[in-house]
Amino acid sequence: VFFLALCTCSRMAAMIDASALNEEDVVAMDVNPGDADRPSFPALSMADAQESAQFRRVAVPAHRYTPLKESWMQIFTPIVEHLKLQIRMNTVNRCVELKTSEATMDPGALQKAADFLKAFMLGFDVQDAVALLRLDDLYLDSFDITDVKPLHGEHLSRAIGRVAGKGGKTKFTIENATYTRIVLADSKIHILGAYQNIRMAKDAVVNLILGSPPGKVYGKLHTVVSRASERM
Q1: Rounded to 5 degrees, what are φ and ψ at 16?
Q2: What pTM did the predictor assign?
């Protein structure tokens, strides 16, 4: 009897201790952590976040060497004044070298400048390529005509002619309808624009490569652009 009474008393004491602990937990949970003083840290600058300067090289193709000389100041100004990067032309390796500086504030400045230079090297005008520095939702897409359909000789030449059109009319129509810029470099096609616009322009170009007549492509493109405008 004495042993049973002792066990009962110990169980009751354990239950009381557990209830007391639960009450302490509830009180602790009621305390708002925001009431305590939180440390505040200033945003890190590029100089503090990086132990060493970042470096990037962009190769210059042979056919873009002369246009680069003529447009150097138009390329130099936005990169140095707006992105606060260092830039130089390496005439030995024939490449443009980019480097961050202490004044660089944007962590993505180096990538933006590299994309800007890459777009120029692919054949885009400086006025079109500089949009990559100002807008965040612009992209570059490149593909080969032979990726769509294996063409050779005169068949390939006719496919390029269908995409360009007489005097570039077809290419300009696609650009104006989809708000993109298109560069035809032999069998390579480069498209600059927003993701959805690139998709619409690419579909139109692919249809032309596959042999669709321009009139049919214009009609389909007009329908797709109208639907996209209604969604917006």
Answers
A1: -65, -45
A2: 0.72
pLDDT of residue 42: 73
Helix axis angle for 169-178 and 154-164, nearest 10°, is 50
In angstroms and rounded to an integer, the radius of gyration of the C-alpha atoms of the chain is 31
226 in Cβ contact with 218 (< 8 Å):
no
2-29 pLDDT, tens per residue? 344 444 555 555 554 555 445 444 444 4
Instruction: Provide the pLDDT confidence category of residue 39 given band limits of 50, 70 and 90.
Output: confident
Nearest 10 degrees: CA dihedral of 15, 16, 21, 25? Answer: 90
Give the whole-angstrom CA distance, residue 66 versus residue 72.
10
